[in-house]
Amino acid sequence: MRCPTLTDLPIFRSVHRLLGGDSEAGITIVELSVGMVMTALLSTVMITWVVTGFNSDSTHRSYDHALEDLRNVSDQLSREVRAADYLTAAETASMTFWLDGNRDGAVDLGETVTWAIEAGGIVVRATDEGSPGAVIATYLSPTDSSFSYDAVIPGDVTRVTIDLVALVATSAGGDEVFHSTDVYLRNP
């Protein structure tokens, strides 16, 4: 019994005939069906590969955006806490401090700053001027993100630990990205 070779495949014979290799004209319905099945299988594999690539790219973009948000919040908050003269309120989901912007030693309007992690996972920065707070970041976990302090009395705080957790949408559902920073007040 002879071992089949590549030239024994119907698709190969059909292509060979189309290129003028045999005197027979046309292709049989079986050869056409085999060609269509092979094309469908290859197309399915290629489409699956492309869709997987797009999903992977989307997931990576979600992680990048989450990390960028966490870094932006952490950097801005760290700068302000370092420059703060003292904390006036220190809670798990918010902190308020006096930031003497004009360095006159007096508490002026707009110099009391509050940072809060709200229930919807939004980080808001507000001042005592009465205007609505600016949204600094979104998609944070309000239950896992928090502020912690090295002292119970706000005026005695010298170190603030900022723990932020961003929620990332992935093709598998969701994931979390963690970022933690210790910030020491410059003017305790």
Short description:
By secondary structure, the chain is of the alpha+beta class. It has helices spanning 10-18, 29-83, and strands spanning 86-90, 94-98, 112-117, 123-127, 134-137, 146-149, 159-170, 173-184.
Architecture overview:
The chain has 188 residues and is of the alpha+beta class. It has a domain at 69-184. 34% of the residues lie in helices and 28% in strands. It has two helices and eight strands, in the order H-H-E-E-E-E-E-E-E-E. It has helices at residues 10-18, 29-83; strands at 86-90, 94-98, 112-117, 123-127, 134-137, 146-149, 159-170, 173-184. Strands 1-2-3-4-5 form a five-stranded antiparallel β-sheet, with helices on one face. The longest helix is centred in the N-terminal third of the chain and has 55 residues, at 29-83. The termini are far apart.
